[in-house]
Specification:
Length: 123
Amino acid sequence: MDYTYDDQNIFAKILRSEIPNDTVLETEYALAFNDIGPQAPVHVLVIPKGPYVSYDHFALAASDAEILGYTRAIGEVCRIVGVQDNGFRMISNAGQDGVQEVPHLHVHILGGRMMGRMVQKPA
Ligand code: 5GP
């Protein structure tokens, strides 16, 4: 797996404040913001501040403090957007088969409606 990080990806530019975002939460280790093309009433992206391509990259290479800080931020975002009671779906796409568009680790937190089946085959 090639974990080479492209620092020109859109989320890297958001982290450098080169393009704006609708912030839900910012911590030392994470930034959470609303997805520009929401697929559900709640659709928040949570990204680590470090240069990680995907969840497996992060899980293998990040420090304990980064993993803890990122994971806690995800929990805090769920509390902020109020999806704990009715539930939510958390997705992290990786690579070609995962159909990852932006090569900086992000989890999607989707909620506010019934999310349907977990995975669909492409049409
Ligand atoms: P992926 O397919 O990589 O898992 O998801 C990338 C997500 O990033 C998509 O849901 C897309 O709508 C979102 N996205 C792409 N560009 C931007 C942007 O400039 N701002 C925000 N807030 N979201 C973006």
